[in-house]
DNA sequence: TACTGTTTTGGTACCTGGTATTAAAAACAG
DNA sequence: CTGTTTTTAATACCAGGTACCAAAACAGTA
């Protein structure tokens, strides 16, 4: 009888963490088989690593998914705003991932690029409520999966409750998209009809 | 000693279903207390109603949330295409739901309206790959939650691999958004780099 | 009132996937 | 070869059940 090669403790534990990360549903028994060790060893490992038992793991996944915060399909603002000077300028970053591209070509769908620019244009306006009225946009070159879009919005002019906002989106300094938005502020009175 | 009012079986069971719908984490014991009956009664009820035990309920919630299908922010095409005549015209419908609006005002975010129009403009083009090059768009009036957007795209002109597509979006016949896209077809040769 | 059917309880044995603890065996290192 | 680390084993116990059986409690009615 020959025994199967076992990993050293350290290695096993790092693999265990990985393993549970992409399959939180594994029981200790499953893991024991996977690593060719006894159930007790797995339990010791979990103890040392502070990993909770199966049921707790599943529960926490379920709780997260039921959390109202997450369930908003898209975040409040598309892209992460990293600089914001109200009524002046703002910058946001968006990394193009699999869910943003055409599966056939791996090229980003235009409306995500637009969404980043549009939500930035709306966010930069110093008003309770701001809505896009018109826009002229240009896709300079296709954007591919993995590229990081940096959008910069600048408020160009202001006339009463209307602003012109210019947004330029670049990938590593290279211009890929431009847009000019006319954004209007709205009084909440709008809410009267209903 | 007076006993607390109990519901008839039928009522209890319908309430039980509701109760578990908005809190799948309740144990039989919790439910027994809630309805002032014994644990066994709850179990009989679950049996009759075909409701699985706590752990299975939690598990299924967790599985759903880990399902790769759900995690795609926006669907492949925004809105449901109900008519499509390639290179000529197309129509899609999108109902504005909670996830599409600003929570403060219940008004639809511009980029969803744009996304519906943009993906329709791209879909109507009879080509392997079509990308938006430029667009001029106008939001005629704000769109509110619950409204059904009907977008109609018409191919206006064609010049080699470039098309002009006009999209008008209406709610019950009332114009709320217009856009003119310049869409280009792409040869897959684009994929050469990388 | 006594009989009958439904509904509710109670109790027991058993299951899964653990925790907690103690102890022995094996592996490895100096 | 001894000391330490690592791995196994064994046992008692827990939550939240399933499956099953029998005793109550209640309601209607002949």
Automatic annotation (TrEMBL), chains A, B:
Family designation: Belongs to the FapR family.
Protein's UniProt keywords contain Mitochondrion: no
Keywords: DNA-binding, Fatty acid biosynthesis, Fatty acid metabolism, Lipid biosynthesis, Lipid metabolism, Repressor, Transcription, Transcription regulation
Annotated protein name in UniProt: Transcription factor FapR
GO terms (BP aspect): fatty acid biosynthetic process; negative regulation of DNA-templated transcription; negative regulation of fatty acid biosynthetic process
Domain of life: Bacteria
Cross-referenced HAMAP family: Transcrip_fact_FapR
UniProt KW Repressor keyword: yes
Function: Transcriptional factor involved in regulation of membrane lipid biosynthesis by repressing genes involved in fatty acid and phospholipid metabolism.
UniProt GO molecular function: DNA binding; DNA-binding transcription factor activity
């Amino acid at each position: 009888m020959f025994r199967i090669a076992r990993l050293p403790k350290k290695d096993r534990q790092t693999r265990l963490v990985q393993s549970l990360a992409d399959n939180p549903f594994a029981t200790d028994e499953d893991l024991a088989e996977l690593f060719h060790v006894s159930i007790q060893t797995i339990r010791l490992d979990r103890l040392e690593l502070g990993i909770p038992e199966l049921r707790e793991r599943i529960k926490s996944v379920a709780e997260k998914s039921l959390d109202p915060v997450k369930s908003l399909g898209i975040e409040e603002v598309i892209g992460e705003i990293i600089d914001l000077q109200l009524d002046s300028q703002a910058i946001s970053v968006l990394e193009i991932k699999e869910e943003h591209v055409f599966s056939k070509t791996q090229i980003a769908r235009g409306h995500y690029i637009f969404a980043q620019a549009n939500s930035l244009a709306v966010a930069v306006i110093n008003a309770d409520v701001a809505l896009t009225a018109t826009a002229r946009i240009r896709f300079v070159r296709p954007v591919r999966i993995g590229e990081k879009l940096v959008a910069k919005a600048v408020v160009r002019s202001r006339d009463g409750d209307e602003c012109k906002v210019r947004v330029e989106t670049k990938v590593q300094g290279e211009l890929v998209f431009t847009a000019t938005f006319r954004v209007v502020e709205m009084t909440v009175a709008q809410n009267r009809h209903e």
